[in-house]
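During the no-cost extension, the postdoctoral fellow (Dr. R.K.) reprocessed legacy sequence entries with the updated structure-token encoder. One reprocessed record is reproduced below for audit purposes.
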Amino acid sequence: MKKMLIVFSLILTILYGCSEEHDLTEGSQFVTTPTNIYDIYEIELGLGIKDVKDVLGEIEFNEKDLVEYNENLMLGFDEDNKLNIISTSSPKILVKDELSVGSSKNQIIDLYKDSDIYEFSDENTDLSWIYLIRQKYKIVFEIYNDKIVRITVGTTPLINLINLEKDIIQKSLEDSEILSASKYLSFLIGKEKNNRLVLDDEFVSYAKFGLIKKVPIPIGMDINEVLKRYGEPSFISEYESEKSYWYRKFNVNFIVDSTGKISAIQVPIHLKVNDVMSHVGDPDGIKSLDDDKIRKYHYELGDYHIDFYTEPLKEDTFAFLYLYK
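Re-encoded structure tokens follow.
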């Protein structure tokens, strides 16, 4: 039972708040303004205040040192009077020619399926903020009822892009603190790929050797060797004597024991129980967990074992599998 608590604590840590270990300067670089705002207002991040005035006319700062150009556009400037915040609630502003105010949260996830995206929320507000970072540029989608209500791009700390019109978050937070408290949405991506791996004819054959097909890291491998070969993970989280290393490139989570060896591989999936059983076979045991909210289907594979866990209160659908020795 203690092992089960560790497993689920690690899952919740990954989904709802992790210690960030990823180098956020990696990946494709944004253009100076990753929207079509230049096409409408002819301004972009980094533009000097004089140039902005030449385009927009005279501007006035409010008490938060922001320019409320009109009801749909807010601007911010750094100490060198360079434009470092552009925020809009206009549906005419598009991100990657697809997203605008009114678009859904799922549309953001679908559009940025190959990126590290995060969601930050606070218990004192119904709003949340989905964001991503590329080099010095940040884009923040303010979300209400799963819809975008504001789009903000900038080169300033995240808290400034969140607390625009008023101090919604009543404390000063560094970017690293916001990241640590954020939900890593990219963990939810890649399930379709993992589904195909589980239903692959060679899935069981690989699992018998402590492997997930197309993941070249077996159970028992030293985590230092993994880091040497494949670099830093997207997230590292810790619970009691175990750590988990989430690699988005592999769509799996490696559980590492106190000796530094990989003791288990965790794979997020979304598959019907009957589909898995028709492919993998009947389990060697079924156990109810968490007051019968979750079911665990156990398979013996020689020296290795697989546990499939259902989604809470959805006994017909698996949420992830756990391969271990």
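The longest strand covers residues 262-272. The first helix runs from residue 2 to 16. The remaining legacy entries will be reprocessed before the final report is submitted.
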